[in-house]
Amino acid sequence: MRFSEHWLRAWVNPALSAEQLGAQLTMAGLELDALEPAAPPFSGVVVARILKAEPHPDADKLRVCQVDDGSGQPVQVVCGAPNARAGLMAAFARVGAQLPGGLAIKQAKLRGVESFGMLCGADELGLAGYPDGLLELPADAPVGEDLRTYLDLDDHVIELGMTPNRGDCLSILGLARETAAQNGLPLGGPTLAPVPARSDAAVRVTLSAPAACPRYCARVIEGLATDATTPLWMSERLRRCGLRPIHPIVDVTNYVMLELGQPLHAFDLDRLQGGLEVRLARAGESLTALDGKTLNLEADMLVIADGQGPVALAGIIGGKDSGVRAGTTRIVLESAYFSPEALAGRARRLGLHTDAAHRFERGTDPELPRTAIERATELLCELFGGTPGPVVEVSHPEHLPTRRPILLRRARIERLLGFTLTDAEVEGILTRLGMQLTPVGEGWSVIAPSHRHDIAIEVDLIEELARLHGYDKLPARLPSAELAIQPRPEQRLGLDALRERLVTLGYREVITYSFVDTPLLEKLTPHQPPLVLANPISSEMAAMRTTLWAGLIHTLRHNLNRQQERVRIFESGLRFVQGEDGLKQEPMFAGLVYGDALPEQWGEKARRADFFDLKGDLEALLEFGGLQRRVQWTRANHPALHPGLSARLLLDGEELGWAGVLHPSLEKALDLPGQVLLFELHQALLLQRRVPRYQAVSRFPVIRRDLALLVPEAVSSAEVLTCLREEAPVFLREVEVFDVYRGQGVPNTFASIAIRLILQDNERTLGDIDVDHLIAAMLARLQSRFGITLRT
Questions:
Q1: Is residue 380 classed as helix, strand or coil in its secondary structure?
Q2: Which of these, 627, 621, 683, 680, lies nearest to 651 by C-alpha position?
Q3: What is the model's pLDDT at position 718?
Q4: Domain range enclosing 8
Q5: Which of 77, 347, 387, 771 is 20 to 30 Å from the Cα of 218, by its Cα?
Q6: How far out from the chain centre does Cα 14 lie?
Q7: Which of 449-453, 463-467, 690-694 has the lowest mean pLDDT?
Q8: Does residue 490 lie within any of the structural domains?
């Protein structure tokens, strides 16, 4: 919300500087985003009239002007602006003037003709929102008056960041109410009085969707002047609020929207066919909007229609074929209350963002439409000479928001805020906020004003007390509760320990949104239907993630677009999957590897990271909790992973997660330039930890035996190691694979896997008989289960 400081001070004028006012609004929960002057510093610029404008004798694009600047003598100025003409009121910088950017105006000679000053355009004065060429001023502008005074340029533009619950502050009236309440000042502003009808002209209004639009006001105004222009004071206030003047009638509706917070719309009465109906769109209907776009309407979209069809998308944008234009003299002015639920998300669905939709989606005051239409009528008739008809109001009170009493308890205030407010302080704060208070035994019964739809329960009122009392004035106290140190199970790892472990392996932690792109999720987890949001932030954030891979891949693409060629990232967070008992939130731990296995260096040749690099990192992570030997890597297919380079990880037979290479078809569909490695593990299992136990160091020698086994290709090395560890005696300390060979001397469907056995007993020295017996038993077990033999 951008607004003019001077416009706000016309309603309430606290004894605060602009900076102090911004700080006060920030402390009230309306965050100050920007505070900037309405115009940069300049001096020596006055209002002037061009008396004559003749062609320059030696330059086709220049004119020699005689200018009246109020000094009593015409001043000769050479000007190149195409709109320089006799009779024009313009901004004139006298000799000696100082313009933005340090430009000093001096007497000069242009192509042989002397020039004493400069006629200025808005850009040369640092003013935004004006057309090119000379800054054109109204015909009644006082010649010789300082331009800063005339345009009220010693003003500030304040921009606030509004939270969605404070839609009541999207207006000068709302901000003035806040400022008045904070400073204990009366609320000023214009007198908002009804304008009596001076004709019988009216339009018929029908509400066919009363739940979506429970109140609708319309008024016919005739006889509007076609040659009228928007007054300068109104144009300047619109510009400083970020709106450019469009058409006098439209400017008035925008002005009232900024002033009171109630969006309005004006229809050209001569372009309507019959009365107005507020209804839901019908199948196949479309609307050509004011911006020229054709909108294909859906059945849940609210429209304003005449006898021929939709003429406006309710609360969002008007139709081009019914809007006001040059020559419009008869209008129908609309002011309505639309339910936020009926409008939420519709504008975004159509790719629109309008000031009206921004306000209606957050909730407007249901009691304001009548007041706003009277205010707009007053301005239109005063400025453009219109003749108003009666206000036609149709409402369904049963669908309007109700204002129920809220019980506010003294004890609850002290408990939540940590200090005591006197009854007078409570009543003073809430009364200044426009609330109705009735004392009851334990506190007050409070009814919030109609514009504060965000106040519904007791804690909302207590928040208002804290806001107006001042967050910076709340006392700081140590908690008085008895705190107990929670036990930390030794068999559980902390998540921070796993994060640090991956960081030491060269990974970086990322935090991505839980909302992701639906098509991407459907590619990564087609077997898990995503939970699609009813009102998403954007189309790229329309569903709750069913895998953390979606956010990691988005982060990878972001980095690749910024020429990062080696990416190793991880994330811990929730995924959301549909289960038998409804939606489940599962804590996961996921990572992604892309690019070279090692940073560029002289000691190692560059090579791309592969599946076994990823496996090594995961084994290092599992070893941190002593889980490596309990985890089994099994061949399995995942729809998002390469069918030959993917593995399902099992921890004691329970699924721990997945690891592998992104499927080539997905890699191509996502436009990724190279192989992407991924893993995703369940946190609940990953955080298990083997509790360390004391074990004496054996005094007896270690025996090593190496076996070369002929293993069928269908059997994994993990299955071989698991088989060897089964029923192994206690003196078998380690079983590891140290070599894999395929080639000459090995059948095509087999691989030669070299296994290292480490044997050591704590009680005695092992003999050859013990070792030979163990190896024979192991070979027999491998032969019977997998057809594995000893390679000779």
A1: helix
A2: 627
A3: 82
A4: 2-38+156-183
A5: 347
A6: 33
A7: 690-694
A8: no
